[in-house]
Amino acid sequence: MNWQDLSTLYLQWPWMLLLLALVPVFWWLYLKRLRQRLVRQALHFSYAAVVEQVKTAPPVWKRLLFPGTVSVMMTVLIVALSRPTIVTQMPVNSADIMLVLDISLSMMASDIQPDRLTAAKQAAIEFVESLPPDARIGLEFFAGSTYVVTPPIPQHQEVVGYLRALNQKDLKPRTEIGSALQAALQVLSPPGRLRAGPPKHRRAPGQKDPGSGNCATQ
């Protein structure tokens, strides 16, 4: 936050500032009580005794320390009750990401060594493992149909497990890129995420199916 952000300052409950009127009321009551005490002393003691007591009285700043402190505390509390708010932009490290991977039969091609599927898996795993801890990553496979394996989750290693479990036996015919991108955007769009259905590939050993089978496969 910088000084320019103060231009966006506003009070959510500005009517609470009306309570600031209590501060001068407090001072009026304090001074009134102080005057009454001096009058009582003048009535009960001789003039010489009163003058002597005035001479031995503490300095003015010490006598005003208590009411001054109370006034400052009241002012700060009342301003806080008005809920001052500043609108500013702050950097956010978290993000929701959908990783979309082609599992069509064309991934068996060996124009990329050792083959497209292995190269894509390795690149995807390296990408997931390089993400910051605050990032949430989801996984989607597509061929002729779309398979949302998991919506964005913070458990990166779970996504890596699904990627490692993928092999050439899971490849399917046809390629529907448009449907795959539409499904990924639907998962990322509010208010809710599209829950994943049973994936059409083998899971990593010991891993559970995300969504417990309650979700649909597109």
Describe the secondary structure blueprint for this structure.
Layout lengths: L9 E2 L10 H23 L2 H9 L4 H22 L2 E2 L10 E7 L13 H14 L6 E7 L3 E8 L2 H10 L11 H12 L30
Parallel strand pairs: 3-4
Antiparallel strand pairs: 1-2, 4-5
Helix pairs in contact: 1-3, 4-5
Task: Describe this entry's structure for a reader.
Helix content is 41%, strand content 12%. It is of the alpha+beta class. The chain is built from 6 helices and 5 strands, in the order βαααββαββαα. Residues 192-218 have low confidence and may be disordered. It is rod-shaped, with a radius of gyration of 36 Å. The chain has helices at 22-44, 47-55, 60-81, 116-129, 156-165, 177-188, and strands spanning 10-11, 84-85, 96-102, 136-142, 146-153. The longest helix is centred in the N-terminal third of the chain and has 23 residues, at 22-44. A hairpin with a 3-residue loop joins strand 4 (136-142) and strand 5. The protein has 2 domains: 3-85, no CATH class; 96-213, Rossmann fold, CATH 3.40.50.410.
List keywords for this structure.
218 residues; alpha+beta; Rossmann fold; 2 domains; three-stranded mixed sheet; two-stranded antiparallel ribbon; 5 strands; 41% helix
